[in-house]
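Q:
My hope is that you can spare some time for a protein that puzzles me. I hope you can help me see how the letters and the tokens relate. Thank you; the sequence and its tokens follow:
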Amino acid sequence: MFFGQHQRRARFGTALSGMVLLAGCASLPASGPTAKEVLRGTEADHNAIGMTVVDIDNAVVARVAATDAGVQAGVPGLVTLTRSGRNDTVGPGDQLDIAVFEVGASLFGAPRGSADGYDPSAQAQRFPTVVVDRDGAIRLPYAGTIHVAGRTPGEIEQLIERGYRGKSQSPQVVVAVKNNLSGTVYVTGDVRRPGRVELSLQSERLLDAIGIAGGSVAQTQDMVVRVTRDGQQVQQRLDRVRAASPDDLVLIPGDRVELLRQPQTYVVLGAANKPSQVSFDQSNLTLAEAVARAGGPNDAAANPRSVFLFRYDPAPEAQVVPGTGAPPALSKSPLAQRPVIYRLNLLEPSSYFLAQRFAMRDKDVLYVSNAGINRTAKFVSIINQLFSPFVAARAVTGN
């Protein structure tokens, strides 16, 4: 009877220990939810923002690729700054060198040569540097005020010659731009030599101006170029601007070019070997490369069947909330931001091929789910640490 009572107490103690163990497992800290908990969060009772879980397969990879192409095509490029202009004209602030060549009777000097005052040789009168005023005009002796803004040096020569007609015999005028302040663009931001870039008759393009300014301070894939023209502002990632392409704008006076360092990144959380914020460091990054940069799943803690990618998706890849058959309650706008969770099973060999074709996006969150057994293992480890000194003491004392 005593033996039976002892067995009942032992069974009760075992059951109580099991309940304590389970309760302890549930309360242990973890780096994030298990796969089961992630899926539970998408159920109607817990899904306040309309999350949808989508398993990555061939069809999903194709839809995501098509969406990326559509989004990229829909982003206004630099080519939308279509207004053309000229960089061979004069404007306020420009400095001009002006010379007037005269033959025969001279307006600006005493005649030389024959007694009748005629000199067959040409005489030149060079004026001090002439600055175009804020109204776009210059003032010359005997010619008066001449409006030159928006005109080429050749056109200005004709205007000055017309002003001296009847006052000088056969005047010929030569105009050269000494300092072209109006025909410049401003390159600022994350470039090595920010400042003003003077445009020439070579019709410098956007990438030319950036090169003249010393280039960007970081890799092109980490940079955004912003161009302001006539109050309109458009920006684009610098690595997407190809030389001599429509986005490689022919610059016009007054353009402002700004380079901003905005690297594309993604965040790694959960049971990965290296949770961190990771920079793309290249123009395009695949899911397979992203997992590799995170060190892959942790063998001791991760559930490789459920590697999740969290993103706000601008296109309706996810159409149905799992278990409900109903679409998520989201905006009807075609560009509505939809919270989508993509799931990759790394125990399936085909997943490695799919991951090579699945493109990452800026600000994606890669989450490696915790294995459910991991919490039990943590609890057992804690128990072992608590009781191992007593076990060692009993082994030494023999009690």
Summary: The chain has a mean pLDDT of 82. The domain at 31-67+265-374 is CATH 3.10.560.10 (Outer membrane lipoprotein wza fold like). The chain has eight helices and 17 strands. The longest strand covers residues 302-313.
